[in-house]
Amino acid sequence: MSVRLVSDTACDLPEELVEDLGIVLVPLHVRFGNTELLDREQLGIKDFWSRCASSAELPETSAPSPGAFQAAFESVASDGADGVVCVTLSSKLSATNEAAAQAARAVGDDLRVEVVDSFSATMGEGLVVLAAAEAAGRGGTIDDVVNAATSAKERLSVFGAIDTLENLRKGGRIGGAAATLGALLSIKPVIEVRDGVVEQESRQRTRAKSLQYLAEKTRAAGPLERLAVMSADAPDFSNFVDLLAGIPSRYERLVGEIGPVIGTHAGPGALGVAWVREVP
Known about the structure:
The protein has 280 residues and is of the alpha/beta class. The protein has eleven helices and 13 strands. About 4% of the residues have low confidence.
């Protein structure tokens, strides 16, 4: 049985990896005023940050339609897939998961599609997709692939250092009280994707301290199966990557960029780290 992976562009996996593993990504929508663009297809990362710099208003994001997911499922079926596993952005952050579930029901008479809620975002979601895609590449059944995704998400942690909680507050992804407190104290928040939602994990007094805190937290989390580090146009990204040097993981560490969907809410300068712990 040939199983293919479908996900959404909020997973932030590098394009070459997506192509190598035959993953199909359904784009979310990013809107600047009256202009709506499809992530990756019509809006690249550099263009996104350039638009952000010249826009007085924050961009907005919206989920793909069920029809977009259905088209993706039917496309891989026409390529010979006997089954599909679709890993999505957290259902607590977006309607993307529900759109995928609706599409899965629509094609259910002709194609088995299993939808897995990553309960995560950016490369946290991406690491779940990656584990599932590798299981499919080894010839796993659809149940094997679902189990690989589920196992990865149960051992997953995602943290980020951001300059302000304001973008998250305006996007409705974090409470206003936390954002207001952070602004008053001029702190540098560390956030966590916990149980599918964004929470403030701690407060650090400086940017340097927040990055050092994340590096120490990552080092203490081992042994790690997978590790990813990502940046939202952060000028000090290379410094953060250096702080993580020497932290071992069974699979090669991923280094990539936070795309427009998550970048809209995290804001410029955000840095993130995601890991999957080894099976105990």
